[in-house]
Amino acid sequence: MAVDLELAPKTKRAAGEPCCEPVVYPDVAREQAERLAMVAKALGDPIRLQLVDVLRKHAGKVCVCELVPLFDLSQPTVSHHLKKLREAGIVGSERRGLWAYYYVIPESLEEFSEWLS
Amino acid sequence: MAVDLELAPKTKRAAGEPCCEPVVYPDVAREQAERLAMVAKALGDPIRLQLVDVLRKHAGKVCVCELVPLFDLSQPTVSHHLKKLREAGIVGSERRGLWAYYYVIPESLEEFSEWLS
DNA sequence: CCTATGTATTGACAAACGTGATTTCAATAG
DNA sequence: CTATTGAAATCACGTTTGTCAATACATAGG
Fold first, then answer.
1. Which of A35, A53, A57, B106 has the fewest Cβ atoms within 10 Å of its own Cβ atom?
2. With contact defined as beta carbons under 8 Å apart, do B112 and B36 qualify?
3. What is the predicted pLDDT for the residue at A60?
4. How far apart, in whole angstroms, are the C-alpha atoms of residue A8 and residue A77?
């Protein structure tokens, strides 16, 4: 696995230009990037984005039985998307009797919103 | 394939509650949702999110050769992520000699940023 | 021309994703 | 208890994704 000894730097830089500024560091720590990306990924599907939009605009909690008919999808599929949103911490749910009500957790979007602006 | 004739609505609503408010509509049109989701999806990977972060913070254009060593990834993989960002309209690129320089297109994030807040 | 260098594309592959059919769970009504 | 109903979980499927190795492409220098 020994790599060739660096005999000569050769030309290294083709033109005289130094290519770019000194060095660049991502000053969004990996951890933060992962949190942000997790949120973005959850919003990275049109259905889920609309789900969040509906829930946000509605302020209150919305029943799954109202959400399903809005999308031309099976109930299990909508349920699946809601689960993804739950896992990303974007929405919460609450059961009342037979029905399940979903709502957006506003703080979950704050960090992302701030990073974006 | 004929479904049973609907003999009787049966109980229909278990409790007396009407389940929830009248009806809810997604007032983010499908088209807009798809645009927003496309941006979110592109940001939905930690590497790409950090790439955008670096490019944004840097204001100017950054050479690929500076970006690659920031991530513990092969050059083709970084190139692949940059392509995804390009396809989503989030970044642009420019060749100068041998090098390629990338930059964020700020307007590309505006709609998403507004929707989010 | 030929060689070296920075970047992009291709091919391959495992992992994750989006979806629907089917089944399971939980809770209510009788 | 049994039957019904809303929601979630499971299974199966084709598609997309992230990654690297290898290759191709473009440009600059000899």
1. B106
2. yes
3. 85
4. 59
- Residues in chain A closer than 8 A to B98 (CB atoms): 14-15
* Residue tagged 């509509």 (tokens): B25
Query: Do B48 and A94 form a contact (C-beta atoms < 8 A)?
Result: no
**Contact criterion met (CB below 8 Å) for A50 and A60:** no
Q: Categorize the per-residue pLDDT at A71 as very low, low, confident or very high, splitting at 50, 70 and 90.
A: very high
Residue A45 CA to D15 C1' — how many Å? 15
CA distance B92 to B83: 9
* Backbone φ and ψ of B45, nearest 5°: -140, 130
Token look-up 């992520």 returns B81
Q: Which of B17, B19, B99 is the best mutation test for A, with the most CBs of A within 10 A?
A: B19
> Three-class SS of residue A94?
strand
Query: Cα A115 vs. chain centroid, distance in angstroms?
Result: 12
SS3 B73: coil
Residue A59: what pLDDT? 81
Q: How far apart are CA A98 and CA A78, in angstroms?
A: 17
Tell me which nucleotides of strand C come within 7 A of a protein CB: 4-11, 17-23, 26-30
- The token duo for B67 is 């970006």
Q: Look up the pTM and report it.
A: 0.84
Q: pLDDT higher for B9 or A110?
A: A110
Residue in the structure block whose two tokens are 């609450």 = A94
Distance from CA of B11 to the nearest CA of A (A): 14
Between CA A23 and CA B66 the distance in angstroms is: 7
